[in-house]
Amino acid sequence: MQQINKPYEGLFITVEGGEGSGKTSICEQLSLTLNARGYEVILTREPGGSPLSEVLRDILLNPEKQYSIGERAELLLFLAARAQHIEEQILPALRHGKVVICDRYNDSSIAYQGCARHLGKSYVEQLCHLATEDLAEPNCTLFLDLDPTIGMERVKNLRGDQFDRLEQEKLQFHQEVRQGYLHLADEHHDRIEVIDASLSLEEVVGSCLKALEPHLTLKPVHE
């Protein structure tokens, strides 16, 4: 396992996946399980996690906004939200030895804007590094892999036609997002664990916990 030189003592877990892959539910279940084991867990999301970042989330995802957002502007807004999120929440928690579980992070920008928006994988990676300054690199990333057709059907069953701005994209867009993630998983197999998200919630949580076990070497904050 590749060791990461970190300016903190905590554990940084990111959960990635396309629309309808169950990221929110998995993050919540992982947080509950690790809390029960004695770890102090911070559960957060992107875009979001800080007051400014939540405002940017509304701008980025709200389908009712009366203005367009260009591809590069979209990317830069995501990165601005992330930079503030790291400064205000993620890094302070990691420096205090906590476990941070984050719903989306840099891999989302690479898959969505770099691959599906065709801005270029390496171009987006460079901007991600600029925004984060590599201050917080995930110890482990769980990629919840799911056929986009199934994922979008899940979203529709859950919310009807109330799709956010990115969910409204055509199926081809979501398929390219998935391919971007799979490419990242192949390139960073030491960090990214591919989880079959088509299984039941209990099975997916079990697979995620199994993937996390090698990383759970922290002494719990409270026992």
How would you describe this structure to a colleague?
By secondary structure, the chain is of the alpha/beta class. The chain has one domain: Rossmann fold (3-Layer(aba) Sandwich), CATH 3.40.50. Helices cover 51% and strands 13% of the residues. The chain has a five-stranded parallel sheet, sandwiched between helices. Helix 2 packs antiparallel against helix 3, helix 3 crosses helix 5 and helix 4 packs across helix 7. The protein is globular and about 50 Å long. The two termini are 27 Å apart.
CATH superfamily: P-loop containing nucleotide triphosphate hydrolases
CATH topology: the name is Rossmann fold
> What structural class is derived from the secondary structure elements?
alpha/beta
| CA gyration radius, whole angstroms | 17 Å
Q: Tell me, what's the shape?
A: globular
Classified by CATH, the class is Alpha Beta
**What is the CATH architecture descriptor?**
3-Layer(aba) Sandwich
Number of helices in the DSSP assignment: 8
User: Could you give the order of the helices and strands?
Assistant: EHEHHEHHEHHEH
In terms of DSSP E residues, the strand content is 5-15%
Gist of the model:
The protein is an alpha/beta fold and 223 residues long. Helix content is 51%, strand content 13%. It has a single domain (11-215), classed as 3-Layer(aba) Sandwich (Rossmann fold), CATH 3.40.50.
Which features would summarize this protein structure in a list?
single chain; 223 residues; alpha/beta
